[in-house]
Amino acid sequence: MTTLNFPDDFWWGAATSGPQTEGRFKKTHANIFDYEFEIKPEQYWHGIGPDTASNFYNDYKNDIALMKAAGLNSVRTSIQWTRLIDDLENVTVNPDGVRFYNAVIDEFLAQGIRPVLNLHHFDVPVELIHQYGGWASKHVVDLFVKFAEKCFELFSDRVTDWFTHNEPMVVVEGGYLYQFHYPDVVDGKKAVQVAYNLQLASSKVIAAFRRLNKNPNGKVGVILNLTPNYPATKSAADLAAAHFADLWQNRLFMDASVKGEFPEELVEILIKDEVLWESTPDELAIIRENTIDYLGVNFYHPNRAQAPKYSSDSLAVDWLPNKYFEAYDKRGVRMNIDKGWEIYPKALYDIAKNIQENYGNIAWFVSENGMGVSREERYYDSETNQIKDDYRIQFIKEHLYYVHKVIAEGSNCFGYHLWTPIDCFSWRNSYRNRYGLISVDIRRQIKTLKKSAYFFKDLADTSRLELHESEMEK
Ligand code: BGP
């Protein structure tokens, strides 16, 4: 048995988002999920949409008390643009939205929990897609900046920790390449513009934060889903594929957010392929001058890449980034079979080393990590009235082993947030995979601490983790 000690002021917390918890109650606008559920409810697991979610809008006090009971000292959620703003063009605020987010922030603070607020968690107002083409439009970028300005004016007196986007690459992939989020477009050139516009939005919001933030301790960052792209083999073709995947999936947002510029090599490829984004010198200056204070890293599973089997240099195929790489499913690896994701904790170490060595050792935290499991009621234990989620505890421990190791080697990591405090709505998967420390019976809205919540409370209270040999070096 080994004992690992973490820093005293470490963020022990969990992350969620507005659209996945609040429910649609009293919202003036529909985000893409609200809308899609109206028109295609069958796309959602068991026909369950975001309209009630985990009822955080009504039940936030009870939920925050449960988060406290699970030991969380910091919690990330997001402000829904579709709740806070009434008139999206003229940016007037909705009084009930302001009341609600004030009440949530004050309740977190009253419970001694640090509220961490994100501004965009995939939940663009659907009418901005219908009117302007969503993130493909720079007008939408500017409307988002105005929404962010309102957030800073209203809440930055009490909230010190802000993030511009959650996983912008998922917006690009889900909405414009691989059809897992509305508007389900497949258009590589548009995807490139959307990626650029999301970065521009993040940088402009950071500029606004520098002007409007009311709190001397205030900081702003972005949350990126990063993973090494491990090549399938050491062949030159696979190495080149993994290299491009890294440029596209990781370095595009990472370099622009931390260093203020896009990777030159990626820009050259996009120019050669005639799909580069439209930008202006003024915009590029904004990106250069408004880099992040700190970084959130979401990590669930590693990516592996191989050379594409078929060349898409054919005239019949429009440009897609997959011209250069294809996902590689390695055999014989550990899997979370419910979600279909590989479990490989060491990747978190590799991510951290990359941040340490290539990004000036910028301050960062694990902003999401977690294990989604289906039919979790299988693990219900009537004696303790708990879901005995030992697999989740194991998953957390194995990842924390590497977080500890890399901190000991000088990495500037200041926290670990699990996805998620309370089981929440997960887009088209709805409530299929449960990730929470706290379970929710979605019909009766009864919430109960799982075994992992008690484990997490002990961890947060002591900043100490006991590990067996078998839980290390996975
Ligand atoms: C991340 C998102 C979260 C959450 C999580 C779990 O990509 O930031 O919003 O959904 O993944 O994944 P899933 O919901 O697909 O199971």
UniProtKB/TrEMBL annotation:
<dbReference type="InterPro" id="IPR001360">
    <property type="entry name" value="Glyco_hydro_1"/>
</dbReference>
<protein>
    <submittedName>
        <fullName>Glycoside hydrolase family 1 protein</fullName>
    </submittedName>
</protein>
<comment type="similarity">
    <text>Belongs to the glycosyl hydrolase 1 family.</text>
</comment>
<keyword id="KW-0326">Glycosidase</keyword>
<dbReference type="GO" id="GO:0016052">
    <property type="term" value="P:carbohydrate catabolic process"/>
</dbReference>
<dbReference type="InterPro" id="IPR017853">
    <property type="entry name" value="GH"/>
</dbReference>
<keyword id="KW-0378">Hydrolase</keyword>
<dbReference type="GO" id="GO:0008422">
    <property type="term" value="F:beta-glucosidase activity"/>
</dbReference>
<dbReference type="GO" id="GO:0005829">
    <property type="term" value="C:cytosol"/>
</dbReference>
<dbReference type="Pfam" id="PF00232">
    <property type="entry name" value="Glyco_hydro_1"/>
</dbReference>
